[in-house]
Structure of FCRL2 protein:
Amino acid sequence: LKLHHSGRYHCGGWVGSRVSPWWEESVSVTVTVQGVLLSGVSLSVQPPGGQVALGDRLVLSCTVATGTGPLSFSWHREGSGAPLGTGPRLELRHVGSNDSGHYQCRASDGENVAESVPLNVTVL
């Protein structure tokens, strides 16, 4: 279901004999589709543990346990102003020494924003 499926519904059909059928309709009912609050934003990292060698690849993935979509994502590192990227995945192909720090994913459903717990990445 989507939020826009809220509304009034009824059903109808032909009843009676083949000779003299008539159309009947049910009483209308109201259906309200409610959104699910955005929560449970979490991060996973490759390589595991968030320790990556200088020049290697780092992949961060963001997941949401519950929430009514569509969802948007943004990536942040402590101390950096602008988002590092958008989408549920952030890939740094060749990490540098300045890529160490605490990373966080923010998810939004257009009305609410939820953040992951910061994940520490160490470049060795």
Q: What stands out?
A: The mean pLDDT is 90. Residues 39-123 form a domain with the Immunoglobulin-like fold (CATH 2.60.40.10). The first strand starts at residue 7 and ends at 9.
